[in-house]
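User: Fold this; tokens only.

Assistant: Input:
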Amino acid sequence: MEILTVAQAGKYCNVSTETIVDWIEKEGLPALKTEGGHRRIKKEALDKFLREKGVPLPADAKTLERKKILVVDDDRIIVETIVQALEEDDYGYDLISAADGFEAGLQVSHFKPDLIILDIMMPDINGYEVCRKIKSNPAQRDIKIIVLSAYLNAEAFEQMKSSGADVCFSKPLPLPQLKREVAKLLGLEK
């Protein structure tokens, strides 16, 4: 069973995300809500809804492969802010989070993300070590890494770059810039 974000449903139907939200709120399109209040739509329910409304199903009934993103930070508010911002994009990312470096290592092995957004200062394994471990594994070398830190000075920036980070940002988060950089690193935007 395929589950779509609002953005993915819009792309699938070639309509705006606002139209999908209207269909959910006013037209009865069945949708689930995540703990964070984000809507998810079962593809089969969307197809049924379209048929019932007399809307032709998209010619390509397969959605595009979703890019996977792992957000690693011990601050839940930061994680939720990043996840919410990325869920609002039209790219329909698959997003999960980890609260520390150890959990991040497990998630990298199981989830196999295309990109990681990583905090440097965490309680157990710091971001430098997580970055080095990922980039030293040939199977994980292509994972893109964006580093976030409140403690990012020129020396820390250089250390993260040498550890394998692709991009570094200082907190507080520049969300529009972060979203652009994520899309660019994943090859979705120039």
